Each structure stands twice: as structure tokens, then as C-alpha cells.
Amino acid sequence: MFQPNHYDIALNINRETKEISGTSTITGDALENKISVHQKFMTIQSVTADGQAVPFTFDDQSEGIHIDLGKTGETTVAIAFTAPLTDSMMGIYPSYYELNGEKKQIIGTQFETTAARQAFPCVDEPEAKATFDLAISFDEHEGETIISNMPEVKNENGVHTFDTTVRMSTYLIAFAFGDLQSKLTTTKSGVQVGVFATKAHQANELDFALDIAKRSIEFYEDFYQTPYPLPHSWQLALPDFSAGAMENWGLVTYREAYLVLDPDNTTPDMKMLVATVISHELAHQWFGDLVTMKWWDNLWLNESFANMMEYVAIDAIEPDWHVWEMFQTSDVPMALQRDATDGVQPVHVQVEDPAEIDAIFDSAIVYAKGARMLVMVRTLIGDDALRKGLKAYFAAHHYGNATGDDLWAALGDASGMDVGAIMNSWLEQPGYPVVSAKVVDGQLTLSQKQFFIGEGKEVGRQWQVPLNSNYDAAPVLLKDHEVVVGDYAQLRQASGKPFRLNVGNNSHFIVAYDDTLLQDILDHVDDFDSITQHQILQDLQLLAEGRQISYGTLVPLLTRFADNQSTLVATSLYAIAGELKKFVTPGSAEETQVKAYFDQLSAGQVARLGWQDRDADSLDDQLIRPTVLSAALYAENPAAVAAAHDLFTANRDHLESLPASTRFLIIRNEVKHFGSATLIGDLLAAYRATSNASYKSDLTYAVTATTDPEQITRLVGIFEDTDTVKPQDLRSWFYGVLRNDRGEQAAWDWIRTDWQWLEDTVGGDMEFSTFITFISRIFRTPERLAEFKAFFEPKINTPGLTREIQMDIKVIESRVDLIEAEKSAVTAAVAEAVK
Ligand code: BES
Ligand code: ZN
């Protein structure tokens, strides 16, 4: 064992020859004569200990250099190495872009989870914190900029030296260089904040991010009662980026789509997304960077927390955005859906192998469920105790590491509650309960049981469920299997309101009300606030997915909410309506009826909102407009199709300037109904030419909707053309074609035939397994299920893919069963609704 204290790292990077060479000089404490340091894909030239050459071996299997020091104690180990600069979006890597027709690149880094070892030999584990001195030289041209975690202190003969870092983990080291532009500002407390991007962007595209970053840091300094400890906080947009964003301390990196945006043509959704990504990464500057999880099994401590704080922060600095509604419509359903499949992992999960570490970054579990778990704690203890607890937690563990128990202890002390006992039931167990509320012999009775979608093995799990009832007689926590609340008639009389659980939808469970209680709720549904209405739809949909009620009963309910003007309700309504599509075969008479149903649902809102953004629009109006227009277009409503066509024709020569809120729909409509090879060619050319990430994603969405088999073949043909489709964007192209009824076969054939290419290209990527997840969202027939199994079952032992393959087989199986069981009920209900 070797415990590093300080690193002196010298790197020389040559973009021309794609070579990295350097030395990593590590001073630390050797607990044994023989030590190991991480490396991957390197050639090690020499190793010295306190200046003397020592014997060593290295290999990629163990990702290590094994050194015989011949002594223990304080030692300075110097390792000289060379390494390749590869296009893997991991380690030190180039990002490509074009400026005025010229091909250019930015060199950047991505080290989490285990890629720092590809950049310099190091003890690459979160607990091995040390200070770092970085000196970097490269084939530098006039006017290029280099940035890192800390400010540059010296530039001598092209060697850029950065100030010594604070004590930190290797996975948070970062640097980047190239032809960059930037915008800078300063927080109230004097921290320099900056946004950096390539010059392919207009300068004003950096403004929004700069403002959000500055105010987020100011918010966190106040909320955490702990200063931001570095002189600067840089935000950098990289043209090639595997994840969404990365919280490197002092130099946060982002996908371009999540940092730069055109302030003159964007949507409220895009602004909220960019803002929450920034506030997520900046939350990590404390939670993750200042205090780091001890080992990757406690990854949730980083990610669940940042995922909650991103909403807390944006809600505080932009209260009018009602950003928690986005949590309700994105994170909450994702968590409830995935966590209901038997075989899902708990939030806290044991992990050793590097390939498995990346696989636990599951957006539905570690992010969405974990955040919801913490929202539950926040609701339970309140913000005062939360802030007090966090302040103590930072003070106790700063520049060090922590576990979940450390956090529960701090929050427990601050609140006087046994937070750990409550939370461990959620943290350590997979799944969540459905709480049944029933009137039994006049007594209002509650009981809990694990909820499953698809086959699930009942093993008697129980949770400590914060009930948040609107009846005071109900307990704060349901700890047992069952509890009797009291005489229902009396309680109902005293309250004057229908009985409800999980008010605010902040606890991770769903409710199955018996007929009496449900009818009471539905009789008063118009009196409830939008979050309650959204929650009623959400819980009923899950119960239908879990086959506890018939899917057909949802149909008339949707009709009742069709004209509701809340984003929350409209989003959940169209999410359910969208699920109805899976019950009908493309091109069938039943599908025509589902389309008619969409037309009926959307007609009122389309008439109310129209195609043009208006000054008088509320935020809800702006958010709902694309949803209802999309429904009308799916319904092939002739007026909607014509309106979109007219807008396209009028703006044919400057499509990018169409309003971002409807641009994707207008172009897609054109491709679907008025498409030609020339049109697709023009759109692909526009795709290659633009640096506007939001326009690019609109074009992907539009082009992949083509119904022409030749054009489908053409699109699949560009999947491997990395000059057109960047590997970071391949998943959305693949998914676009796969979910197109006319493209499904071609996309499925492609991924099976070229799996090896895919693995070679993006296999090291932390989000690789989501290619499989996406397929499981689409497949719905017994034939596809069989093909899926035939292809993926032999791959089940691939590190990092095992759980995903097992889960996705279950997901498709349960969908196939659901359709078989419910198809006739659904089509009958739809036929009845449109009669
Ligand atoms: N630390 C992660 C990035 C990451 C994920 C690195 C997986 C290595 C493996 C970062 O803080 C993060 O959570 N990014 C999200 C975006 C975020 C706003 C939800 C991502 O990349 O999806
Ligand atoms: Zn994160």
C-alpha cells in the first residue's frame, strides 16, 4: 500500500503525433516494500524511488505498475511514461469541431471514474487524496488558452505551471487547451467565475451559463455555510463529451448542449435543463469534491445529493420557474418505473471492478431515486436542520472522505431524529412499496407491500414510509406491515376532504386506494392542486403497468384532464397517452382510433395556444404548446399538418431561426409528410454545418422520422461516419431510427451486425449500457423479445452489462404480457372515447 501526499506531474502532449509523455513524481508513505500504482494503456520507461532506479513491472490487466521499493516509509517515487492520445472521450482526449470550414480540436480531460490512470500514474482511488502540481506543455500555437483546476502561475518556455491544488481525489483533476473564448465575472465573495467554449459559438451564447454559475455558487456558499475554497470556477463546453457534465474541482466540463445556448432563440425547458446541469455540477464542488465518497459503493452520496441540490438551488435563484415540477415529470416517473422491476439494484450497491463502477451510474436509481430519497429526508427534517447538519458534515470531513452513515449522523444530530434508521430502509433495499388504503369493516386501514411491474418475487421487504397524509390521525411513519387509522366515516366527516396519502408526492411510494376512497378522490379531482392531479394519474398508470387495475380505465380519466392548463398534468397525461400507442399495431384500424383519440385530447389546447409564441403566454403555456402540437401532429390533424408545412415553407432558407419551441415539430412534419431525398440531404448538410446543439438535436429528431426505406438505409449508413454523427450523439440517432416503425428493423439489424464496432468505439463509455436500455423501451412483441434474448443473453457476462441485460429482458417480457392481457380493454376504451 502506498499513500500519496503530493504529486508533481509534468506532461507533454503532442496533438500531431497523438502522444503523451511525462513524469509523475509522487511523494507518499509506503506501508510495504512492494507497492502498486495505477496506470492504463501506458508504456513505463523508468521508475525511481528517492532518486534510485528500482525494479518494476506493469500491465493493463491489473491496470497497475508494481514496484519493488526495497523499503517502507516516506518515499518519492518518480515514474516516466508515454501514453497514446486516443479518441475515446476518456483520459486526455481531443474534441473536434469546425471553425470557418477549418477542422480544429480542443484537448480536454475526463477522469471519473477510473481514467486519471490513463493520463498519469497515480493511486486512482477516491480516498487517496493528495495535493497536485501540474506542469503542461504542448504543440502550442499563438493565441491558444490553457486552463486547469487552479490558476496558472508560470509560463516558462511553453511550460505552463499551475498553482498547487488543495487536497483532492485524482478523478477531479482536469485541464484543457485550444483556441477558446471566454466570459468572466466575480461572485460577491470574490470567486472568479468563467464560461469557456470554442469560437464556433457566438459570444452571447455564454451569457446564460455565466449568470447561473455565478448565482449558484453564491447560493451554495450561503446554503452550505461553507466558502467555495478555490480562486476560480471555470465552466468549459467540450464538443466531444461522453457524459452530460463533470464536476472537476474548479474546472467543470460540459457537453455543449448543456452549457451554451442562444439567448434569443431557446425554450424554457432548455434553460431549466442547462441551469440544473450547472447547479448540479456546482453542488458537487462541496458534495463530492470537498467531501468525497470513501469508495464507489457510496457513489449515491455524490450523485443523489447533487441531483436534489440542483433543484433546491435553481428553485431558490429562479423561483418563478417552478423547477420542482421538472423533478416531478422527469426524475420521479423514471425512478418509479425502473425501481419496480425485480432485479434492480439498491441505491447503495457494492462494487469493485472498474467496468462495474460505471454501470452503477444509473440515472433512474442513483440519481432519480437517490434524489427522491433525500427529498424525503428534507421534507422530514426541514431546511433548517438540513443546513445545520450539512455545515457540520462539511466541517467534519472537508478535504476528506465520508460514507452514508456520516451524513445520516450529521443530519440526525441536527434534527434530533433517527435519520439513519429511516433512510437505511430506502438505501439498502431495492424497490419501493405500494401502500394500500382500504376501508375494512368501517376502519380506515393502511398496509404496505413491495410494488412490481412484471414478475416479482415477494420477499417481505418493508420500509419506513413517511406517509404525509392530509388526515392527522394517520401516523407520520408507517413502519409496520399494517396500521389501522380509525373509523373512516368519522374521519371523513371531521376532515371534510377525501383521504389522501403522500401529499406533495415527495415520498417514494405509490398508493392503491380502494373503490370507496378512489371514488371520493375522483369526485373532487377538480378541487385538487396540479401536483395532486399529476400524482393521481401517475399512481394509476403504475398500478395499470403492474396489472393491479385495467389500463382501459385510464382512458376516460385522461379525457377529463385534456384541457388542464398545468404543465404537470399535461405532461403526465401525454405520457400515459403515449403508452397507449404500444397496444396497437402500426397501420391498423386500432391505431387510427388512437390517433383520433389524440386529436380529441389535444383539440382544445391547440385551439387555445396555436403555433406562435405570444407575449401573453404563461410559462405553462410555453411548456404545454409543443406537447399538444406534437399530439395533434401524431393524430395527423389536417390543420396542424398544413400549419407546420406552411411554417416550413416560409422559413425554408433559414430553418435554424424558426422558434426553438416548435422547430423540431415543423421540420419533422415536413420530413414525414413532404419528405424527399433532397430534403434529407439538405437537413443532413445543415446538421454537419451548425454548432447549435439544440438545432442539431431537432434535426436528428426530424430526419429519423422519415418513412422512406431508402432514406432509412441512408441514415443507418451515417451511424459510423464520425464526421457527421459524433460518437457522443450516436445513441440519439440510433434511438430515433429504432423508434420509427419503419426504421426499427434497420436499426436493430445494424446494432446486431456492428456490435463489435460499437463496442470498440463507445464501449469504454460510462453510458454504453444505455444502448441496451433504449432498445428495451421500444420492443413489444414476442418475436422481438426472442430476438433480444438470442442476441444479448450470450453477452450477459460482459462486465458492466450483466444487470442491464437481465433487467431489460424483464422489461420487454412484462410489456409483451401487458399488451397481450390489456390490448382489447384498451382498444375498446379508446373506441368508446372517440365514439
Ligand atoms: N459525476 C457525473 C459525471 C459522470 C457520470 C462521470 C458517470 C463519470 C461517470 C456528473 O456530476 C453528472 O452527474 N453528470 C450528469 C449530468 C447531471 C446534470 C445529471 C450526466 O453526465 O449525465
Ligand atoms: Zn453528478
Automatic annotation (TrEMBL):
Superkingdom: Bacteria
All residue ranges annotated as the ERAP1-like C-terminal domain in the record: 501-813
Chain ranges of the Peptidase M1 membrane alanine aminopeptidase domain: 208-426
EC number(s) recorded for this UniProt protein: 3.4.11.-
Site (Transition state stabilizer): residue numbering on this chain: 367
Cofactor comment text: Binds 1 zinc ion per subunit.
Residues annotated as catalytic: 281 (proton acceptor)
Domain Aminopeptidase N-like N-terminal, first and last residues per copy: 3-172
Obligatory cofactor(s): Zn(2+)
Enzyme class: hydrolase
Subunit structure of this chain's protein: Monomer.
Name of the protein described by the UniProt record: Aminopeptidase
Originating species: Levilactobacillus paucivorans
